[in-house]
TrEMBL record:
<feature type="compositionally biased region" description="Basic and acidic residues">
    <location>
        <begin position="75"/>
        <end position="91"/>
    </location>
</feature>
<feature type="region of interest" description="Disordered">
    <location>
        <begin position="1"/>
        <end position="91"/>
    </location>
</feature>
<protein>
    <recommendedName>
        <fullName>DUF1754-domain-containing protein</fullName>
    </recommendedName>
</protein>
<dbReference type="GO" id="GO:0005730">
    <property type="term" value="C:nucleolus"/>
</dbReference>
<feature type="compositionally biased region" description="Low complexity">
    <location>
        <begin position="45"/>
        <end position="54"/>
    </location>
</feature>
<feature type="compositionally biased region" description="Acidic residues">
    <location>
        <begin position="59"/>
        <end position="69"/>
    </location>
</feature>
<dbReference type="InterPro" id="IPR013865">
    <property type="entry name" value="FAM32A"/>
</dbReference>
<dbReference type="Pfam" id="PF08555">
    <property type="entry name" value="FAM32A"/>
</dbReference>
Length: 127
């Protein structure tokens, strides 16, 4: 066996199916720069739209009277699930009532004091 059999070629491991093997980053696309004339037109259009949609002087939205539909964009099953979840929460709140944290802690302490202490080992032997 000659020295040629044990020569390492160096470089990275070549894998099948990989063209170059390197990581290629995607090039970022720059947005096209708008013309100054078209920019003025868009400003005028947005100012007109702002006044039509009930925006204030500074472009802030004023609150609308009609609330948005909470079920918009949900399937029938999702709507039923939300409805059941809300009903369960209402029932639980009615059952528990409105308790402060202090009242809950006192109730829990009473419950713990009434439990049998089965885990306590009686003393065996002297002392």
């Amino acid at each position: 066996m000659g020295k040629e059999d044990y020569v390492s070629t160096g470089g990275s491991l070549k894998l099948k199916g990989v063209m170059d093997g390197g990581i290629r980053k995607k090039k970022k696309k720059k947005p096209p720069t708008p013309d100054p004339a078209s920019e003025l037109k868009s400003r005028d259009a947005s100012a007109g739209a702002a006044s039509a949609h009930g925006l204030g002087e500074r472009g802030e939205e004023e609150p609308e009277e009609e609330p948005e539909d909470p079920y918009a964009g949900k399937t029938e099953a999702e709507r039923r699930f939300e409805e059941r979840k809300r009903k369960r929460l209402d029932e639980r709140l009615k059952k528990e009532g409105i308790k402060s944290h202090k009242e809950r802690v006192e109730e829990f302490n009473k419950y713990l004091s009434n439990l049998s202490e089965h885990h306590d080992m009686p003393r065996i032997g002297p002392g």
